[in-house]
Amino acid sequence: MKHIDFWLDFVSPYAYLAFEHLPRALEGLGYEVRLRPILFAALPQHHGQRAPVESAPERDGSHRHAVWQARQLGVPLQWPAAHPFDPLALLRLAHACARQGAPSRYVCETIFRHVWRGGGAADDAARLRALAKALAPAREPGSDEVKQALRAETDAAMAAGVSGVPTFGVDGCLCRGLDAWPTLRARLRGDEVPAPRA
Known about the structure:
The chain is α+β, with helices and mostly antiparallel strands. The chain has a single domain, classed as 3-Layer(aba) Sandwich (Glutaredoxin), CATH 3.40.30.10. Helices cover 47% and strands 11% of the residues. It is built from eight helices and four strands; from the N terminus they run E-H-E-H-H-H-H-H-H-E-E-H. The chain has a four-stranded mixed beta sheet with strand order 2-1-3-4, sandwiched between helices. Strand 1 (2-8), helix 1 and strand 2 (31-37) form a beta-alpha-beta unit. Helix 1 (13-25) packs parallel to helix 3, helix 1 (13-25) crosses helix 5 and helix 4 crosses helix 7 (144-160).
């Protein structure tokens, strides 16, 4: 059975859409997924790029495109009250809930839906407390141990060449974005997939 690394950040609407669509996109294939929450904001600077939401026109365009993509995929999406927001509390909560090295699909689904369904403020303190209570993390989200786990996961992603979210890794190859499904399916089937040109 093939193994997929799935790098994500809860602040990204595209990571949310990929997470929700993944079971349908890969239907009929055998695979296991390791969910790897990372701090997306650290990636552009590391790779010498500009963050995609630094300007209002880019933010607005990304917003409209994500809403359109959600409709195409049949995935419910309500934009949070403020975006972008600081996702650190959510990322740390996910890592605090990890009981076997990585958070479960249930944990990530609950956090993603906290952000992308209902239109509430994703970083509202009362909502975050309720979310943490519902997930009952095994470790304290604000502990040095959890902070280091998130930092290490983000560093490992950058070392692997991850430059955005969502990114999927199979057999040492990276497939990035919502248009990666055909390539990802081919790799899971064991088909020979040409490497992209440099």
